[in-house]
Amino acid sequence: MGTAGGPILQPGRSQPAHLLKVGDQAILIDCGEGALGQLTRAEVPFRDIHTVVLSHHHFDHIGSLFALLGLNMMTQRNQPLRIFGPTGTARIVAGLTDACDVPNEIGFGVPGQTLPHARDFVEVREINPGDTVEIGEVTLTCCENTHYRGEADHGSGWYLSLSLRFDTPDRSVVFTGDTGPCKAVERLAQGVDLLVGELMDVDLTMTRVREANPQMPEARIQMIGAHLADHHLSPEQLGDMARRAGAKRLVAVHFSPGMMTPARAREYLARIEAVFDGPVHLSEDLGRY
């Protein structure tokens, strides 16, 4: 539903959020700014979401969580809303739930009226690499990726960035989340029907960083560039990940500002297809696959 990436908002693209529908189940993967509006455009009531799975806690992936909690509270939700995510998810949700206190106390201003509180329906479970979670007919597994640290340092940090696999009765989907090249993600995605992977144009992004920050020291510029190159995927790296995993189809998402001009889109597609021979889509918001 949302195919933008990074902290800069873009017209025409919302921040990261994906909807997985399996029968009457509606699972929201990440919940970036604009997610609830995108659900409305997709004709999916936000109250139909029963499960949210977070890949990591950068703000572009969680910005609409407060709205999801608060609007369900104001519409008197009486069914559980389950939220899964890496370490830190419970702390974030607890803070957002506490922030619902004042709106809950105000209610609709009707004397004697009470509303359910978000904490009455929210259920949180933190997940770790290797965990298996059954969500109705869907099986969720996950691995640590390289968005926060290299594979040699996996397991050494408190916070995690996860890649997520969903196996349904008739197909499988892997969401890389934000990541750099990563063997663990390739293993998680082995034989997957659909790989939804992030894409970064580091050269373009660094050009924009330099333009926006002409006084930034060169050492700082180099550090940012190295981070982006190590912890995100170029077109070739995304295609190679799909090829190594044996993915049947690839959808690219998480585009930073300025990436998706027609000429650049053609270039990215050609660079991916040079290493991956399956179907490739550069997703638009609300794309269905």
TrEMBL record:
InterPro entries in the record: AtsA-like_MBL-fold, Metallo-B-lactamas, RibonucZ/Hydroxyglut_hydro
CDD domains listed in its UniProt record: arylsulfatase_AtsA-like_MBL-fold
Pfam hit, one: Lactamase_B_2
SUPFAM superfamilies to which the protein is assigned, alphabetical: Metallo-hydrolase/oxidoreductase
GO molecular function: 3'-tRNA processing endoribonuclease activity
Residue ranges of domain Metallo-beta-lactamase in the record: 14-227
UniProt key word Hydrolase: yes
Keywords of this entry: Hydrolase
The protein's name in its UniProt record: Hydrolase
Species this chain originates from: Maritimibacter alkaliphilus HTCC2654
